[in-house]
Amino acid sequence: MAETTTPVRALGLICSLKRSPDESSSALIAEDVFKTMRGEGAECEAVRCVDYAIAPGIEADMGDGDEWPKIREKVMAADVVLLSTPIWLGHASSVTQRVLERLNADMSTEDDQGRPVMAGKVAIVSVVGNEDGAHKVVADVFQGLNDLGFSIPAQGCTYWNGPAMGSTDYKDIDEVPESVASATAAAARNAMHLARTLRQSDYPPYQ
Question: How far apart are CA 144 and CA 59, in angstroms?
Fold first, then answer.
């Protein structure tokens, strides 16, 4: 168990289809989540997943240039994992699905108490898009994260949807709507609270 005096470590897995340094709404809303977390003393790092060669598969290391192990190392060191995804055709991005499939490699990995290795980690989700589907995307991603053993806090998501069939993105708006800003801050605060709680009192042994 991590020392309660060490900062909470948050990792943002940005599942945009845009490579760095292109602007990304998924990266921007993740940064808005991080602003609240940093205000509470968290150490935050964002990873633009599409910048890495993440091979298809459900193993921890698929070999032959697979760069998922670099990201997995960051996941294993994190207390909070934020998945931030755009909506395409009503679904999370293909990058999001690839990330979930690679996380699946650790579904059966246990700690020395027989617990899922992800059980002590918190997961939250942020979603952006200019089409409907945010609730469905959150539900689908949360189900996968729950299966993997992540703990999901109360109101552990935030999302922004622009006008249906429009061309305005989150990165284009002049001011974040108060309802979105409030949801973003709540998800961040609740994730921090749950992460600290799990540090002090983890789940009981499965053995």
Answer: 16
Q: For residues 163 and 198, what is the distance between their CA atoms, to the nearest angstrom?
A: 39
| pTM to 2 decimal places | 0.95
Q: Give dist(CA 118, CA 110) in Å, integer.
A: 8
DSSP E strand boundaries for 15-156? 43-48, 80-88, 91-92, 122-129
d(CA 191, CA 9): 11
Which SS3 state, helix, strand or coil, does residue 83 take? strand
Residue in the structure block whose two tokens are 């998945």 = 83
* Contact (Cβ atoms closer than 8 angstroms) between residue 30 and residue 84: yes
Going by C-alpha positions, the residue among 111, 150, 145, 122 that lies closest to residue 1 is 111
Nearest to 53 by CA among 61, 62, 63, 65: 65
Going by C-alpha positions, the residue among 7, 47, 16, 14 that lies closest to residue 129 is 16
Q: Report the alpha-carbon distance of residue 199 to residue 123 in Å, rounded.
A: 15
- List pLDDT tens digits, range 22-71: 999 999 999 999 999 999 999 999 999 999 999 999 999 999 999 999 99
Which of 3.40.50.360, 3.40.50.1380, 3.40.50.300, 3.60.15.10 is the CATH number of 9-200?
3.40.50.360
